[in-house]
UniProtKB/TrEMBL annotation:
<keyword id="KW-0805">Transcription regulation</keyword>
<keyword id="KW-0238">DNA-binding</keyword>
<feature type="DNA-binding region" description="H-T-H motif">
    <location>
        <begin position="177"/>
        <end position="196"/>
    </location>
</feature>
<dbReference type="InterPro" id="IPR009057">
    <property type="entry name" value="Homeodomain-like_sf"/>
</dbReference>
<dbReference type="GO" id="GO:0003677">
    <property type="term" value="F:DNA binding"/>
</dbReference>
<feature type="compositionally biased region" description="Basic and acidic residues">
    <location>
        <begin position="9"/>
        <end position="79"/>
    </location>
</feature>
<dbReference type="Pfam" id="PF00440">
    <property type="entry name" value="TetR_N"/>
</dbReference>
<dbReference type="InterPro" id="IPR001647">
    <property type="entry name" value="HTH_TetR"/>
</dbReference>
<feature type="region of interest" description="Disordered">
    <location>
        <begin position="1"/>
        <end position="93"/>
    </location>
</feature>
<dbReference type="GO" id="GO:0045892">
    <property type="term" value="P:negative regulation of DNA-templated transcription"/>
</dbReference>
<dbReference type="InterPro" id="IPR004111">
    <property type="entry name" value="Repressor_TetR_C"/>
</dbReference>
<dbReference type="Pfam" id="PF02909">
    <property type="entry name" value="TetR_C_1"/>
</dbReference>
<feature type="domain" description="HTH tetR-type">
    <location>
        <begin position="154"/>
        <end position="214"/>
    </location>
</feature>
<dbReference type="InterPro" id="IPR036271">
    <property type="entry name" value="Tet_transcr_reg_TetR-rel_C_sf"/>
</dbReference>
<protein>
    <submittedName>
        <fullName>TetR family transcriptional regulator</fullName>
    </submittedName>
</protein>
<keyword id="KW-0804">Transcription</keyword>
């Protein structure tokens, strides 16, 4: 029993020793782990402090950079403001310089315009015409130079115009060519170009000369309507004698002495009325347009005009006029008003239309009545 107890005691001792060793080992491991944790905590604390320090340095650097950026922007703004002030001052100087230049240019233009005006308003014996006038107008204001040495010209512009008028009256405006004109005058075509440079110049001369000059209408003639009717009564027979004028008397064509004289006569006839100047110009423009329209219609309704427009009949005769065509084509059911007007000759040529005691056509009288009413309203 003693041996057994001794063995048990030895085993217990050994087991206790093992337990002690295990406990010591566990304690050492625990101490080691605690030391590792302590070192890790110290490292983490050091890393945290370093991170805080780094962030602080970054914050300080960011503040410094922001301060530098603000300072840079402030300097740029100050520089831009200074540049803007300098640019504004420069622009002001340029504007003042441009204004002075514009004023000088305007003064120069005014002087040039006055010079051109004086040059354009020439008296007999002056040489040349303003260079800025179109040839078709400049030729109308050309006057022969006085006292120039050498032989006299063989032709005058008046002779050229008269020859062109004779051709147009006899054979129509289409017959007027430089070759035909030279032939009728007994000259060669090339020699004619010494006096006029183109057919357009010839047409301008013809238009201005064919219309002649208006009558003198003063207060002794009567009121505005009497004066205007007198001018129109003289003008309309001239237009009817030269129907080709409808194709040469455009607004800007042939603005010569004759054209201006007629415009002056018609416009001055309205002196003393309460009409504004633009109303006066509009009124005489309407009268002039109506007169030329009547002239054009008359030319188109003539036998030659109808042939040029639609040809001839199968027998070679001129085409029917408008009234005859309406009578042939209109039906009593659909066009009773047209047939009635055609039957009474309402579509005849303006030359055959009824006229008043002064020889004025219905349209002219109607326009004059309208002007009279306008004057009454303005009074």
């Amino acid at each position: 029993m003693d041996d057994d107890e001794a063995r048990e005691a030895e085993e217990a001792r050994r087991e206790a020793e093992l337990l002690r060793r295990d406990r010591e080992k566990a304690e050492r491991a625990e101490a080691k782990e605690a030391e590792r944790l302590r070192r890790d905590l110290e490292k983490a604390d050091q890393a945290a402090r370093k991170d805080v320090e780094r962030r602080e340095r970054d914050r300080q650097k960011a503040e410094q950079d922001a301060a530098k950026e603000r300072d840079r922007r402030r300097k740029e703004q100050e520089k831009a403001a200074q540049q803007a002030v300098r640019e504004a001052a420069r622009q002001l100087r340029e504007a003042e310089k441009a204004q002075r230049a514009a004023a000088l240019a305007q003064q120069q233009a005014a002087r040039e315009a006055e010079k051109a005006r004086r040059h354009a308003v020439r008296v007999a014996g002056s040489e040349g015409v303003p260079v800025d006038l179109p040839p078709g107008i400049a030729v109308l204001w050309r006057t022969p130079p006085a006292g120039r040495p050498g032989p006299r010209p063989s032709l005058t512009l008046e002779q050229i115009a008269d020859a062109g008028i004779a051709l147009a009256d006899a054979e129509g405006l289409e017959s007027v060519s430089m070759a035909r004109l030279a032939e009728s005058l007994g000259f060669t075509t090339m020699s004619l170009y010494r006096y006029v440079s183109s057919k357009d110049e010839v047409l301008s001369l013809m238009s201005d000369r064919a219309t002649g000059r208006p009558p003198v209408v003063g207060a002794e003639v009567g009121g505005w309507r009497d004066r205007l009717e007198l001018v129109l009564a003289v003008q309309q027979p001239i237009l009817r004698a030269h129907p080709w004028l409808a194709r040469t008397s455009t607004v800007l064509h042939a603005v010569g002495p004759g054209r201006l004289a007629w415009m002056e006569a018609m416009l001055s006839a309205l002196d003393g009325t309460p009409l504004a100047e633009h109303q006066k110009v509009g009124a005489i423009g309407l009268l002039a347009s109506h007169g030329l329209d009547q002239l054009r219609i008359g030319e188109e309704l003539s036998g030659a005009g109808r042939t040029a427009a639609v040809g001839t009949t199968a027998e070679g005769a001129p085409a029917p006029d408008l009234g005859e065509l309406i009578s042939m084509l209109a039906s009593a059911d659909e066009h009773p008003a047209l047939l009635r007007a055609a039957g009474q000759g309402a579509f005849s040529s303006p030359e055959d239309a009824p006229q008043d005691d002064d020889g004025l056509d219905f349209g002219t009288v109607l326009i004059l009545d309208g002007i009279e009413r306008l004057i009454a309203q303005a009074s």
